[in-house]
Amino acid sequence: MTRTSRINLLVAIAAVAAGCKGETKTVDNPQTLEDLKKCEESKKQKDELIASLTNEKAQWMRDKGQGGGDVTLVIEGTILTVKASAGGGTDTPKIDPKLASAAGMQFMDVVGKSRGAIQKCYEQALKKDSSIQARTITLTVEATFSDAGAYQEANFAPSLGGTFDTCMKTVASKWALTQKSPSRRFKAQVSLTPS
Prior knowledge:
With 195 residues, this protein is an alpha+beta fold.
């Protein structure tokens, strides 16, 4: 072994020996421990608030169910059906069939005027999911309005994906009823076929 090789070997041994000084110990940072404690307290407060709000909502729903009850107008094809909500009880208000029919026709008109926008939402869904291209989809549209006729919320079934649902909620958010209705909730069916 040459002198240079021996020196290189000794330097390597010294470097390894210098690196092995014993076991490494970790010490918790006091600031990290304090931050963790604050985070746990915040989480506990959040959980308590969620539980409180859940109880308030449940009580509100029970109180709402004791009142006159909601009425839903369901339109399937050309048949209009009036249904009381499950929480309505026996004190569901009587509905004038002429008013119910007029409100249902107004809702169908609102949905009909949105037919082009609904079809665009469907075509966007077709681009994302080829499995729905070969069949007609019967979409159930359910919308809720305030007593004054302003849009509140809508649901659609079956779900054709997140893009479709977001698009449909945007379309539905523009809906409004102009005349006073005996119902706040409407259901209708729309057939969707690839163009």
